[in-house]
Design goal:
608 residues, 3 domains, 22 helices, 47% helix
Length: 608
């Protein structure tokens, strides 16, 4: 068996994209050569030895000994080479830090993996790997990180490899950091917001289960352009344009732009809201909503659907609770619509569902306006004195008028989200009218006059009639059916809480003397393993209900448990297993207790 075959199993499990890119690579003899004891790279026609011509290990060790590696840090290292410097870093890397290694040349990486068995450090969970073009797929392994345990991102430079293509390495690190921030934002949101999202789902369940799923809207507006309206600073100057083109396409706005439109006499056919936080409702508070239909996931702030009675379309998204309820009611899981970074990304995904082949972006600045302005003037942000932020906190990105503009960390995530969507939605033509906004890769800038010509003479007068027809035709489940469906998950949570609490208390009451090796087979220790089997069997038997349990507080509790596990004793003694099981049992108990608390709170009083 070749060394490459030996490495393939771990590569396929941990880094499938790396394996795919290596298998598709072609080795050009000029790019590199592997000789006994060394690596030679071709740089501008000259051979370069990144590990020297003798004593490679001494060179790498000297470099590694000079490193000062910090805890809770995600390090980026450009160049895999022969892997010598990677191994040296891993030997010194704190257990709560990680190392991402990017290799530009997939053929080189394949050749190196064909010369040596790297399973020892490919199995190291602290190592992440990417190869080739530094795009989102290259950094796929970032999805596996526990971002709550990491505090910073730092580059590592192994000079001899870095110097081979310093510009490429710097661009790769920039792309890496952007992707890290993007994935980190989504991860921490899920981790911190789980309980809040479940509470919103319970509040909304009775209303949303009786509203049509967006799946019934597939290709409903085929051929019509979508005018996607955000609440960036440029919305102020876009209002006359929107008034002129109001009848030519579907106007779908985010919650924070809604008031500006209605106060200007513009009636959007659709508004989309996603977030469970109170700010989401503030975009609608005090405004008329007649004639506008709400499209939202089950997890939206519960005050929002109250002001759109009888004019609601829903999607289940990532909500395991919503999916479970729908399946039990015979409705199917429901549609999944993209929820990533910004509500506008959801509207882009809806545009694809609706059959819109053209999207005009309005008020999508993703940049700070003059003096650090963050939103349109007529918004709740202005009411609350939150319309500006210090420009000193911003970073520069290319602007639509050719000059750099300022953005902040959150807006930057929105920008990257849009660019991912544009790349994925290749069947849609986009234009961007935000004159003072950030340039979105793949989306040309149009003036308002140019945008009017681009929209053409489409007629969107039938949109509201179609939406009304779909709502009137839908017949949802009754109150008693919904109550019964929810009761099954509540019973599961009660059983899990009882089993995990009993197990945790047993482990917590073990006397310290049982840590001695001579007590390895003691009945009290063996009972801990039996408790683990009982709890795990219960979780495995009801996978849908476990998903509901996991998406709430349990996700955060298990993340904390996994973090603590890294620092606990690594031996396989019965005592160590008992301590680890105890932490697991408490995590499950905390999560199930929180879910039961939601069932007992005002959030679910209609289902009690």
């Amino acid at each position: 068996m070749s060394f490459y075959s030996q490495n393939q199993t771990l590569l396929a499990r941990r880094f499938p994209e790396v394996l795919t890119r290596m298998d598709a690579s072609v080795h050009t003899t000029r790019a590199f050569s592997l000789r006994e004891g060394g690596l030679m790279l071709d740089v501008a026609g000259n051979e370069v030895a990144p590990y020297g011509t003798g004593g490679a290990s001494r060179l790498v060790q000297a470099w590694a000994n000079a490193l000062s590696l910090e805890p809770r840090t995600c390090y980026f290292l450009s160049g895999f080479g022969l892997g010598l410097q990677v191994r040296a870093v891993l030997e010194r890397l704190p257990q709560d830090s990680v190392l991402f290694v990017w290799e530009e040349n997939a053929a080189l990486l394949k050749a190196v993996f064909n010369q040596e068995n790297f399973n020892d450090f490919l199995a190291d969970e602290r190592l992440l790997l990417g190869v080739g073009n530094p795009d989102a797929d290259c950094f796929q392994s970032l999805d596996s990180l526990h971002y709550d345990t990491l505090a910073q991102v730092q580059p590592l430079i192994y000079g001899p490899l870095f110097a081979v293509n310093a510009l490429g390495a710097n661009l790769a690190f920039k792309a890496f950091k952007e992707q890290y921030l993007f994935v980190n934002s989504n991860y921490t949101g899920c981790l911190k917001d789980g309980l809040m999202l479940q509470e919103a789902t319970l509040h909304n369940a009775n209303t949303f289960l009786r509203a049509p799923d967006v799946g019934c809207m597939r290709d409903l507006f085929h051929g019509l352009p979508l005018i996607l309206v955000g609440a960036g600073p440029s919305l102020d100057e876009a209002l006359p344009f929107l008034k002129r083109v109001e009848a030519r396409g579907i106007i779908a706005c985010v919650n924070s732009a809604y008031r500006s439109l209605r106060d200007a006499g513009i009636h959007p056919q659709i508004t989309v809201a996603v977030d469970a936080r109170p700010d989401t409702f503030k975009g609608y508070a005090g405004s008329l909503t007649e004639g506008t239909y709400l499209v939202a996931p089950y997890t939206v702030n519960p005050e929002v659907p109250k002001v759109f009675p009888g004019r609601i379309f829903t999607w289940t998204g990532q909500s395991a609770l919503a999916k479970t309820l729908r399946v039990r009611l015979g409705l199917g899981e429901g549609m999944h619509i993209l929820e990533q970074g910004t509500v506008s990304a959801s509207i882009l995904d809806l545009a694809r569902l609706w059959g819109c082949s053209r999207v005009c972006l309005v008020g999508q600045d993703m940049a700070l306006g003059p003096f650090g302005k963050t939103h349109a003037s007529n918004s709740f942000y202005a009411d609350e004195g939150r319309l500006y932020e210090p420009v000193s906190q911003g970073m520069t990105v290319p602007g639509n008028e050719g000059t750099p503009v300022l953005t902040d960390a959150q807006l930057f995530v929105y920008l990257k989200t849009f660019e991912h969507c544009v790349q994925d939605f290749s069947g849609i033509d986009f234009i961007n009218t935000a004159r003072t906004g950030a340039a979105i890769r793949g989306v040309p800038y149009h003036t308002y006059e140019e945008a009017e010509d681009w929209l053409g003479d489409s007629d969107a007068s039938y949109v509201r009639t179609q939406l009304r027809k779909l709502v009137d035709e839908y017949r949802g489940p009754g109150f008693d059916e919904i109550t019964k469906a929810l009761g099954a998950t509540r019973q599961f949570a009660e059983r899990v809480f009882q089993a995990s609490t009993e197990a945790a208390v047993h482990c917590a009451c073990l006397p310290e003397r049982l840590s001695a090796k001579s007590y390895e087979k003691h009945a009290l220790l063996l009972a801990c393993d039996q408790y683990a089997d009982t709890v795990n069997r219960l979780l495995d038997r009801y996978p849908r209900d476990y998903e509901v349990l996991f998406e709430g507080k349990t996700r955060a509790e298990l993340a904390r448990y996994q973090s603590e596990l890294k620092h606990s004793a690594q031996d396989d003694s019965a005592w160590t297993r008992a301590q680890q099981n105890k932490a697991f049992f408490w995590a499950i108990a905390e999560g199930s207790d929180a879910l039961l608390g939601l069932f007992s709170s005002n959030a679910s009083k209609a289902f009690a």
